[in-house]
Specification:
elongated, 4 strands, single chain, two-stranded antiparallel sheet, 67 residues
């Protein structure tokens, strides 16, 4: 399965990375790509990391999220 990811600058890239299924069952979240040090892609990389962390931690208790 391929998905289209839109970056901050409006440019998109296709991704075929394996998905991880969330604990609730049906939600899949792709790990962010390794940062390629391109300054134009910083905002998109940070957004992808935040989304990944939020989705993975959404059912954890507050103590687990802090750790």
């Amino acid at each position: 399965m391929q998905i289209q990811i839109l970056l901050a600058g409006g440019a998109g890239r296709e991704e075929t990375a394996p998905r991880e299924v969330g604990r609730s069952g049906g939600t899949e979240v792709a790990k962010p790509q390794i940062f390629d040090r391109m300054t134009a892609r910083v905002a998109g990389f940070i957004t992808a990391c935040k989304l990944y962390i939020r989705m993975r931690m959404r059912e954890e208790p507050v103590e687990g999220q802090i750790q």
